[in-house]
Amino acid sequence: MHFRIAIAAAFLTAAATAQEDGLHWLDSYKTAIEEARKTGKPLFLEFRCEP
Amino acid sequence: MLSPKDSPRGKLMSQYVLARVVRMDNIDIGLFDYDRNNTLYFFLLNGDEEIYMRYGGRDATGPDAYLNLASLEIALERGLELHRKKQAGEWKPPARPSPDFAKNYPLLVERTIARNQCVECHLIGDFQNQHRELDGTLDKLKHLYRSPDIKTIGIQLDVPKGLAIKEAKGAAAAAGMKPGDRIAAVDGTPVWTFADLQHRYDQVERKAERVRFTVDRDGKPVDLDIALAPRWWLSDIRYKQLTIDPRPYFESRPLDAAAKAKLGLDPAGFASEVRHVDMFAQVMKSNELKVGDIVTAVDGTVKDEMADTPELYIKLRRKAGDSVTVDVIRDGKRMRMPVKTFRMSFRK
Known about the structure:
The complex is a heterodimer of chains A (51) and B (348).
Chain A: H1 2-12, H2 14-18, E1 25-26, H3 29-39, E2 43-48
Chain B: H1 8-13, E1 17-21, E2 40-45, E3 51-56, H2 69-87, H3 106-111, H4 121-135, H5 140-143, E4 155-157, E5 165-168, H6 170-174, E6 182-186, E7 189-190, H7 194-202, E8 210-217, E9 220-227, E10 250-254, H8 257-263, E11 272-277, H9 279-283, E12 294-298, H10 310-317, E13 323-330, E14 333-340
């Protein structure tokens, strides 16, 4: 049970730690699509409730 | 840190444009359709808004039942593979669904956008259903019982390994599914993740009697024709926020043929023995049923094409907030009593 809670917590706090990870997250869908078109990279899009 | 930039997962993620969306105001919810009762949900796509796959999904076990960092890594790798195929002209995108936006739902506009409040995912799903109820397009088998549980046909996934089968029982095992198989397609549509599988499985017609799963076994595709039992779509929805769900606050178990015969009840009826009465039944003055009561009819109806219990009949055939009358056998005496269902509100 503790492990499962830890996994959920890990996902839920991914947002908070993303910048520490050195990964850059955009908060605008429009900007993200423009960036994907410009760079030719795929897009990893997360939908989540507002914290 | 979950995914340091120089870790394997960090290296995978750095090959993507990463974006996080919390407001759905201007998002095409037709394209990004998913069961809104997920806390987190992900899409892997390209700049042309062509979706490669989904990641996420859950069941009644908990919001994290299918969230796993190892399976996320698998999805990220597959996403890059599909993107390379797309760039090489070797990948055919799925047909784009009709566009849809939050502004198309007046109740949602009134309750959120007009108040400058966040258009949250679960609100979208709930208001969509409320509008369906108003305009007569609500299909409870599909909309109330969205995201059927794959465990009901005996599929247990090895979650860290994506769609690898850990254990196959019941209908899946009878069709030939084995541990170690990897689910590759449902009714011919490729699936890469649990979210893909759950989304595609949800599209199976509720009256269907069979579903075709294709599994990868030792590098070769194997088609499995799985039999679907009546009410295969029925799963525990108590964790969901559904205003359209009439809550009767009791649970019962169908009587067997012998018990029905002994009581002189219709053998095809949904007569059931009450096994649990929720504490809210008393608090909300919903009903005065007791454990052990036999409920034999709802508003005089004793059987239904889809329902095998009176509470399922109420959920499928009545609106949230409706009151019904149930016929009950208690200690050998026949009686009739009211049951008031409740219409929940999940607004902030």
